[in-house]
DNA sequence: ACTACTGCTACTTTTTATGTAGCACAAGGA
DNA sequence: TCCTTGTGCTACATAAAAAGTAGCAGTAGT
């Protein structure tokens, strides 16, 4: 049974409920998913450029994550490359304050 | 080379920079990490209870994530079980709006 | 001493991710 | 035309991470 893309409304790995928040946590908990969103936040990028900024992630993985993120309408493909959809942008905006938190966190750890 | 806990200031898997935000994305991108934080947000839980609410995640994994999250001061152990630290609570608060987003997302997907 | 619960560790199997090669297509010269 | 360059991948072998299951050591109670 191959892994499927977690979608709201359908049960996902790590949750029988299908609650949207669980599907989301599953999706974002996959390696490189958050990073891809992060790298796309400022505008479109082509496949290989994206690969580079994601520290040479393997094309296999990158393509897998891109497929998943496109399936659930967080990322889309345009003539200029991959970019966030409107939903995707909204999502990243929610993550925006993370940077501030991460900086405070860094200070505390010394 | 076993995987180490990503900490701000040190280079991590997926980033040479050691930028706190990258360390954070790496940490949270590990399976069950977000979920554990999610489950602990309302108060302390014991090991086995946590295991159950996380859909019977294997103790191996749970323990690994708990160790990582404790190392970086997001989770702590108390007499009543595991719970979020102050930093951890702050972190979850940032995620709080995710639920609303996820619900809108669910509607759009039909 | 026996039971029950708690927080794990050990071990095997399965799933995911990495690393590397290279293919098919398109555009642009020479 | 044939060669180059870039782009978006796929294939496949290997390594790392996670799942699944068993069970142990410590503590509290009876």
What can you tell me about this protein's structure?
2 copies of one chain form a homodimer. Chain A has 110 residues and is mainly alpha-helical. The first copy, chain A, has 6 helices and 2 strands, in the order H-H-H-H-E-E-H-H. Chain A has helices at residues 20-28, 33-40, 47-53, 59-71, 86-95, 98-109, and strands at residues 75-78, 81-84. Chain A has a two-stranded antiparallel ribbon. In chain A, a hairpin with a 2-residue loop joins strand 1 (75-78) and strand 2 (81-84). The longest helix of chain A has 13 residues, at 59-71. Chain A is globular and about 40 Å long. The N and C termini of chain A lie far apart (45 Å). The model of chain A has no long low-confidence stretch (mean pLDDT 90). Chains A and B meet through helix 1, helix 2, helix 5 and helix 6 of A and helix 1, helix 2, helix 5 and helix 6 of B. Chain A binds a DNA duplex (30 and 30 nucleotides) through helix 4.
């Amino acid at each position: 049974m191959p892994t499927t893309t977690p979608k709201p409304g359908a049960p996902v790995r790590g949750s029988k409920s299908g609650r949207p928040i669980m599907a989301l946590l599953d999706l974002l908990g996959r390696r490189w998913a958050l990073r891809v969103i992060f790298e796309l936040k400022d505008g479109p990028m082509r496949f290989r450029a994206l690969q580079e900024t994601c520290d040479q992630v393997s094309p296999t993985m990158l393509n897998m994550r891109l497929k998943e993120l496109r399936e659930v309408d967080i990322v889309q493909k345009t003539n200029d490359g991959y970019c966030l959809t409107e939903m995707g942008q909204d999502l990243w905006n929610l993550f925006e304050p993370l940077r501030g938190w991460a900086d405070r966190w860094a200070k505390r750890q010394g």
